[in-house]
Amino acid sequence: MNTTDKADQELLDGLRSGDPRKVKALYDAYLPDIIYYVRRNNGSEADARDLFQEALIAVYRKLLDNDLELTVALRTYIQVICRNLWLRNLRKSKRISLQAPTDMVEHASTSETLGLDLERMERDRTYFRCFDKLGDKCKKILSWYFDKIPMKDIAKRLDTSESFIKKKKFECKNKLIDAVHQDPVFKEL
Amino acid sequence: MSSLAEQYDRIERYLQGAMTPGEMDEFNQKLNNDPELASAVTLHQELAETLAGDRIHQFRKTLQEVNANWKPATGGRWLRVLKSPQNLAIAASLLLLIGFFGWWSFQTPSGAELASENFEQLPVQAFMSLDSGDAQVIRKSANQAYIAGEYEAAAEQFEALTELAPGELSYQLYLGVSQVGANAAADAVNTLKPLADGTDQSVKSEAAWYLALAYLQMEEKTAARPYLDQLVRTGGFGADDAEKLINMLY
Fold first, then answer.
1. Which fold has domain B114-249?
2. Model pLDDT for residues B220-234, shown as the tens digit of each residue
3. Is the ipTM of this complex over 0.85?
4. Do residues B118 and B245 lie in contact, with contact meaning Cβ atoms separated by under 8 Å?
5. Where are the domains of chain B?
6. Which of A41, A47, A177, A180 to mutate to test the interface with B (most CBs of B within 10 A)?
7. From its phi and psi, is residue A115 left (phi > 0), alpha (psi between -120 and 50) or beta?
8. Regarding the domain delimited by A123-188, which CATH topology (the fold level of the hierarchy) does it fall under?
9. What residues of chain B lie within 8 A of the CB of A128, using their CB?
């Protein structure tokens, strides 16, 4: 991470901690701008909240991976993510052209220069969306499996046999992959 | 195991590096020649990367909770709107206009204030000798109330007189003046307008003046204007006061 701004650092520390009060501070600081921007550009508050959540997840993931290279203010970084995700969304849905974002992202920062893979972020959104549709048991099995927990340990945690978990893991993963393939956003990516 | 389950198993073993070198070579060859298999591998890999980690799932739950409870702060939107120089200029112009209007309103008395300042009794002698009998009794009572400034009571008496002598325009005029005095502006307009718009010159100017005052009581300055103009033009009753009002109001 390459940021020297103290306020940004505090917000990032809050984000890393996952403390809801500190996460809310990020919402207070940055989400109103995103809502204003998206509303001005044919979107709703709900759209803005979705984009913002995605941006925070992207930042959080980079924090966990020690891969966050902030060469701009955190506010700008988050705005770049949201703006570009929204641009892609508008282009795909062929809604009217975006207004010049005079009050947002004025520093000509592009997602590429900030090391962001927006297409991957959109796919991630789809994956989470489809994962959310699964039942609780499937969610548990798959998240443990993706966390590389051995099958026999998962079976122990769920008080069942390893063969049942293997079968169940396949069913759950198949449901997830089917849902991803059926997802209209994913089809357009 | 179904063929799909077998495919999943092969992809997972490939991604985990659990294949033998021979299996790996064979699989790599298939990957190079089968775009569907290649995209399936990518999907399995991305799902594992994206959905791995309790912390991410926990973090998403936190975000969902914060998002559900978060509400924009009141007024923030206006601050953001003002960030734009164009919007700021518009806001500043509006503030100036509002300020000027406020100053102007402060400097200019309301119509009701002006009506109150300009209201004076019309002298009563004009109809003193016109009535007799019951009318004379009522007129006397009306006259007393009118002179005492008890305009509501006076208006009741003059109204009774107008019923007794509908053609007597002076009763109607004094009824209207009493109504203005009692701040019954709408009634005064109904009473005085036919006289001010009529042709009888004995009541026309007086009716026009008090009608203008009634309109001012109602803050209908535009409606008062033609009657004030009429008084100035004809130079009749209240012409000077009408001119002053015009200069103050318009």
1. 1.25.40
2. 888 999 999 989 888
3. no
4. yes
5. 3-51, 114-249
6. A177
7. left
8. Arc Repressor Mutant, subunit A (1.10.10)
9. 50-51, 60
